[in-house]
Here is the input.
Amino acid sequence: MALQQLKFEFKVNNPIEFSHEWRHHGVVGSGDLEILMEKKDLGGAVQVQVVTPVVGFDKVWGMVLEKIVKENRLGNISIEINDNNATPIVVSMRLRQALAEAAKDVRKEV
Amino acid sequence: MSVWNQLQKNSFLESSARQRANGIVDNGTFTELLGPRDRVSSPHLPVLGEAVAFDDGIVTGVGLIGKRPVFVISQEGRFIGGSVGEVGGGKMVATLKLAIGAYHQIKEKYPTSYQGRLPAVVISFETGGVRLHESNAGLLAHAEVMDQFQDARGKIPVISLIGSKIGCFGGMGFVGAATDLIIMSEQGRLGLTGPEVIEQEMGKDEFDASNKALVYRTTGGKHKYIMQDCNFLVEDSIEAFRTQLAEVLTLSMESIEEMRRVGSQKLVEEQLELVKLAVELDPRDSMDVWKYFGNESPAILPELSLTDFLKQAKRRVRKVEGGSVNG
Amino acid sequence: MDEVESMIGRGREAIDMIIDADSLQEGIIGEFQFDPELGPGAVVGTVTIGGQPATIIANDADEYNPRFPVVFAGVIGLEEGYKMALAVYRTITVDKEKPLDQKRALLLIVDTPGNGPGKIEEIMGMNKSTGGYQLALAEARKAGHPVIAIVIGRAISGAFLCHGLQADHILSLSKEFGTMIHVMPLTSISRITKLDIELLEDLSTKNPVFAAGVNFFYRLGGVNEVVDQVEGMRDAMIRHIDEVRELKRTGQFDKLGPWGRGTIGAERGGRQTRKMVIEKMTEEFDAVADKYLYA
Here is the structure.
């Protein structure tokens, strides 16, 4: 019954450095999630931690996250997600939004 | 166009707590305190298997309007209905306490020229009150907020912004009513008992919660404006709320105190007159009260645009122009 | 402990057990006389306790309000909330000229199942009534009046917020008396949150932040002292009036009221996170304060 905590690690070749110290995106609404991204020296790797009430979708999370990491050549970044029953489509969409917003707004943190 | 400029045009109703917090103070001045990066989420939700949020559903921080530090509390209705638990309640209380502390510091630093620098507290409500998952802590936090309000009386304005989806109900309904001044949009709702609970307690004949028009007539912004239970009614945009807020902040603390509904003996006596009216009128609907206050065709009021409504609507005439502390 | 007789619904008897014999002047505070028709669900008046004058405010579960039918069995309705608030302001006025350590006490006898939910109440803005009463009590407390509440029966949710939780100190009869302190019954919580009732029942045996009842509230700091005999109520009230008066005389307001209960809650291990939240926010603000205070 307790919340699930899932951990993932990914690594891609020639990752692109994240241009912010940290960024936050989203709201933990029903069927939605929030994402906290933080620049971190991880030897080029990406660490993801997901906290979710949903049980048994570890594999799906892994696939969705890996796709996003590869697509965006992420590296040296820690990603933390608080999820409340988001579908894989919503997860991908929110991650893409978060990264796009971060790329667009490199001037200052909001 | 900067993020802040874009935010101004946003619907207040549709905006997240963080967008509202950023948008209602001057461009780029908002600093979040205990923001998501601090990762202080509720310690009581995981055991229930309930999702957590890094900000526990309440955004708190400080910004500027001109030279005035504006302490902001902004509730996120999408996270467990904006409910108040131990963390969120603590954030509200701490914000108020910091604002009162700032008042004393500023008065000391600028003994003769503090007027335009005094802090204010702004609460953007979106909540049904106590979070049932940690109900006792939530309840105790409500009492602490009220206690801080009384400390703030006559020193710094505490201003409510109500125009978000969940409205402002339950214990936070008292809290909203106890602030100095209330700014609402037509979409905002303020009350004690939410429509579903009234229906459940009283039966569908007394109150049909699925009747949206009835719900808005009973607790919505236009009704609250006619009743003088909100002071200002504005369009549904962050800019409209911010503009009204900035205007209000040019008023003296005395004028702001005069906008209160409760908080002194005179005000309680004035409210008791309204209770007498309730007995005399025995209204079946808010429209009966609107008519009593001089609105000949009350049924048209919900249909009017904000501009026309503000021109045409007749409000309750107040006998007491507010009341001083213990006046 | 043996079965004891519950005090639920017996607010008037509780008044008699607590105050000096036959000292209740109902509906009178100083020169002011309340309209006897107003807010029948609430008893207000002047009493003496230990020879000292005090204002009493209690729920009356035997009365119903003919004008507002949602008010019965101790419900605090529109009229009741304002009546109670008025009693507090009248008390402040009566002792206006008195020095801080001579302000009379306000005694709140708490046995209320809730606030009146109804359409007329919402149309008229019931939230002002209950909010107004809380502000009045906070003002009295800060003006120096010792405000002591005692839960003799039901202290439920919003009604406890307005009648009880603004006191300096809160006492409660022990759970053997069937006292109830909670926000909502578990069955309703389960329905609204869609959480499993078994899970909630389990939690309600151990988590003070969630569980109902006097003992858990005590651990959160929400109740200062548990009284285990009705005969003990009077002495406990007198003792707490004196304690609170002494703390105020020495300027220790921070130990009293809702803020003081926060501190006690942390000491008793019930509310740890609140303390951390307040400290951390203060620290973070201090780091940026200059930019905002001296802009």
Remarks:
- Chain A has one domain: 4-104.
- The beta strands of chain A are 4-11, 22-26, 32-39, 45-52, 77-84.
- The first strand of chain A starts at residue 4 and ends at 11.
